[in-house]
Specification:
The protein has 185 residues and is of the alpha/beta class. The chain contains 8 helices and 6 strands. The protein has a 6-stranded mixed sheet, with helices on both faces. It is globular, with a radius of gyration of 15 Å. The two termini are 26 Å apart. Bound molecules: uracil.
């Protein structure tokens, strides 16, 4: 679990959160976990395994994410992993605008506490939280600076499960991510 006091306090707040309907169907909140200061990875929302364990990206998409991170020369333990919403949407549906808006302040505060150099946005939901007008087709694989933050959008690791033709595209994006992170070191 997260040792940082600010993140631990935030995780407690998230555990007590009842700001949107997702609280009534969750088993566990999934605040996020990992290392500070380097790379923050933001997915969409917890699935069944994540809801059971209270940890992000522990199912099949998590396995894909770990493989992709290794393409970038990164390990799971060297990045901070979280989601746009911290509770599982029933049947793994996309989070609604209201659910995303209710959770967004937690995400902002996590970004402040983690202070990442790069934020990887996995998939359309995460992308639209920061760039509502953008599309993945246009934005994937290139970094965008906004203030002090460097965003790097790419496809969600689960999209590779449903669309194998994206596999090489996503691998290539993660190799570019590795170059970006090394250039910042
Ligand atoms: N998909 C996500 O977006 N997040 C998870 O934690 C797991 C699967």
């Amino acid at each position: 679990m997260t040792e940082d006091p600010a993140l631990a306090a935030l995780a407690s707040e998230i555990r007590a959160c009842v700001k949107c309907p997702l609280h009534s169907t969750r088993k566990n909140t999934v605040p996020g976990d990992g290392a500070l200061g380097s790379v923050m990875v933001i997915g969409e929302g917890p699935g069944r395994n994540e809801d059971e364990q209270g940890l992000p990206f522990v199912g099949a998409a998590g396995h894909n994410l770990e493989v992709l991170l290794s393409e970038a020369g990164l390990s799971r333990g060297s990045v901070f992993i979280t989601n746009a919403v911290k509770c599982r949407p029933p049947e793994n549906r996309r989070p609604t605008r209201g659910e995303l808006d209710a959770c967004h302040p937690f995400l902002r505060r996590q970004i402040e506490a983690v202070a990442p150099r790069v934020i990887v946005l996995l998939g359309d939901t995460a992308l639209k939280e920061f760039f509502p007008e953008s599309t993945l087709g246009r934005a994937h694989g290139t970094s965008v600076r906004r203030g002090d933050l460097l965003f790097f959008p790419t496809y969600h690791p689960a999209s590779v499960i449903y669309n194998p033709s994206l596999k090489e595209v996503v691998r290539d994006d993660f190799r570019k991510l590795g170059e970006l992170v090394r250039a910042l070191a």
